[in-house]
């Protein structure tokens, strides 16, 4: 039984077990994608979130099915946490017709509107306006859903950040802006890009709540985001949550990470969010070491199966080249 950590009311111990497996699913998916890009079997580019699993899984764990999210260029974890089919995700990255965008969108354009995922976005800061618009729809039509808007630390300097948050604040829209601060915007450290200690402190300029959470502690993430979601659902308007975390990989597939030290990487790897959840769960006798290993293996097999699904799916034919083109 959990004694040392607080759980939101809607997150049961059984759901925690599922979250542990989900975090492994996110990590194995990312690592498999990294492997295939290195082998030249997947083309284009990709941005991986290995090490950031708790911010995605923990944030989305407190939502209702009707709630929405907008994602980023580093969005695989958000998609999986919101219930995306990893077969369709992997097929999309392989450029196959069974993918979410029929193989034409790739890593940064996965969306699943039926699950409430309004889409990943290759434009830095591109999700702010979409999330705010969706929240406006919820309020005007009295639909009752809340929108989570994920963004990175680098996007907090985009004009769309300020415009969207200002509007959301004025109109008290049901949206939560979640900054996944992984310490770097491409190769630039946050301290060189922002002259404040916390990005969440910018909330003060818009008269809304701002809170910093440990992005590698799924319990801290869940509790912080849940508080903001309930605030929004009551009609009290938006909040900014800053989840401080770290990406283990480079910015994208071509990044050799020469701008950071191995000592820094080692320090953050020791804060592995999956290992931290595992230790809490075992200490609380929610599952055993054998159970944890079984869940990890199940997640790994799901990813391996998604690779086979993708490989065995057809590629788009040339006569479909101009289909689904809107601009």
Folded structure, characterized:
This protein has 327 residues and is of the alpha/beta class. It has a single domain (13-311), classed as 3-Layer(aba) Sandwich (Rossmann fold). Helices cover 42% and strands 9% of the residues. The protein is built from 11 helices and 7 strands. The strands form 2 sheets. A 5-stranded parallel sheet has the order 1-2-3-7-6, sandwiched between helices. A two-stranded antiparallel ribbon has the order 4-5. The longest helix is centred in the N-terminal third of the chain and has 26 residues, at 13-38.
This entry's quaternary arrangement is single chain
Helix content: 40-55%
Helix-strand pattern? HHEHHHEHEEEHEHEHHH
Structural class: alpha/beta
Distance between the termini: 54 Å
Coarse shape: globular
Largest sheet: 5 strands, parallel
The CATH first-level class comes to: Alpha Beta
How big is the Rg? 19 Å
Widest sheet, order of strands = 1-2-3-7-6
Instruction: Assign the CATH architecture.
Output: 3-Layer(aba) Sandwich
